[in-house]
Amino acid sequence: MKLATLRNGRPDGRLVVVSRDLARCAAADDIAPTLQAALDVWDDAAPRLAERAAAVEAGSATGVEPFDPGLAMAPLPRAYQWADGSAYVNHVALVRKARNADMPDSFWHDPLVYQGAADCNLGPMDPIPLADPELGCDFEGEIAVVTDRVPAGTDEEAAAAHIKLVMLVNDVTLRNLVAPEIGKGFGFFQSKPQTAFSPVAVTPDELGDAWDGARVHLRLRVHRGDVLFGAPEAGRDMVFSFPRLISHVARTRPIGPGGIIGSGTVSNADPAVGAACIAERRARDMLEFGEVRTLFLAPGERVRIEMLNDRGHSIFGAIDQVVARYV
Amino acid sequence: MKLATLRNGRPDGRLVVVSRDLARCAAADDIAPTLQAALDVWDDAAPRLAERAAAVEAGSATGVEPFDPGLAMAPLPRAYQWADGSAYVNHVALVRKARNADMPDSFWHDPLVYQGAADCNLGPMDPIPLADPELGCDFEGEIAVVTDRVPAGTDEEAAAAHIKLVMLVNDVTLRNLVAPEIGKGFGFFQSKPQTAFSPVAVTPDELGDAWDGARVHLRLRVHRGDVLFGAPEAGRDMVFSFPRLISHVARTRPIGPGGIIGSGTVSNADPAVGAACIAERRARDMLEFGEVRTLFLAPGERVRIEMLNDRGHSIFGAIDQVVARYV
């Protein structure tokens, strides 16, 4: 099934079930008022939501309305846990190589995860707020999974069963704030502003054979304006699987229901597929031309992140944002 | 007023108003079911909660029951934002000096804040779960404030008005995981397990003259077992005030209602006051004796963190936890 959250003037919006073709939706707030509320009691809520979704497909649901992604908030407009991995180690290696920095060999064996905040997530068509273009605004196309409660110490094998939903992410990053923050030793903070999510979150079965329980084997299509910036295959070169990332996050603490675990920027070793973020393209610029030729985002620019199934249909709907300057 | 959250089998518990002497409480879930719900509409909820609190003090409230901190969850059992500063720069300087590492001068001018997670906060008397004593389990006695919604770009002057509640914190840290994580460049992750909070959160007016709108001018009393481990004065040597920390957190993103902003380990330059965490005591061991003489926490050890007003009464109740090994 596919789930979305529509704006209703409240912080967590209202839960709807969306048709597989993303054309229609039906209220589900009688089952659970919000997606977080559904995730809090997922074993009870999921079968009832699935039943509603089947009724939407069959045309037998009541109160069906057109689904407008412009009215969608992030599926979880705010979440208690947002832990973002860097599972495509190739991306890290490339960016480091471009600035002549070594990457420890341990990065290939020990997952790199940063603690994000998700108190003010952006909807799929919300503008990307930018105070100052000099901050170096970048997009990062990613995949994320949503878990139920994961006990502390859950191993990789047991972690897979805790994956309940899959979404797309635009992990907006202010590149020119990254180096000074990393240098202070406490990780990212101001360099990670609000994160945007796809119009719908889907249960893994919606991915069919493209989901193997650990990775999504489809291309993530990232447009900058009208140009296809990159379309890396998300199942390839993902060194750490989602269950492995979850196990890493849960090593010393549980994950509460509704925890969001991100893949990090999707990236392939093959340069022909392009990149899912500007920083990677700039690293390739350096390696190819000895200089950076790709600029960060300017106000007014548009970013679109999407994933199509093998019949060319959008699975999650599109993250489709315009950079908007604010003062 | 003083607010607490009592266990009721649900993730966010139920909101109660607690008497000033912490002896009694009255249900407030008719005003807002949870503290997060109250913070979501604070301007509406706060006057009604204050009225209930006045009725509890006057003995005119109905349904008053004894307040048992053993039944309390964290005031926010889960929160969308937990950003923890390192405002007592003396602490950072001391720990670095003990390991012969320089501290950049910028640390005195630019706040150091790490992004924490607060999806599974511990109640004041919950055990500290510890899988392996070799991880180097430490307590950190801190103060935290809770905000309403803070717009992105809020400056220090405007930030003060967003402080709605004050709490105490035990920011449990696994010291032996810190160095490898910092070395990876993405900040703390597994080294920061679940955080514990005081039985009640109080509005700043409960602090009287000890609150100047920016700092709490009282001693934070930290016991390890029966021994007073430290009692630093929280208003002294706090280089970055709470409004300054909030402004730092909100530089590139808003803070959602119910954001928790921590001070970092309370620490004074004067060694006579002791320390609010073991790491600082170990740093002083190194400087005084050339060797570490203070061990990290072992299973069965007890930690108590409390703050008394000028008449010797506990303001927040005590964080009072025992380390419990789990497998």
TrEMBL record, chains A, B:
Stretches assigned to the Fumarylacetoacetase-like C-terminal domain: 82-314
Location of the Fumarylacetoacetase N-terminal domain: 1-78
Pfam families named in the record: FAA_hydro_N_2, FAA_hydrolase
GO molecular function terms listed in the Swiss-Prot or TrEMBL record: catalytic activity
Gene3D superfamilies: Fumarylacetoacetase-like, C-terminal domain (3.90.850.10)
Protein known as: 2-keto-4-pentenoate hydratase
Source organism per UniProt: Rhodoplanes serenus
Lineage: Bacteria, Pseudomonadati, Pseudomonadota, Alphaproteobacteria, Hyphomicrobiales
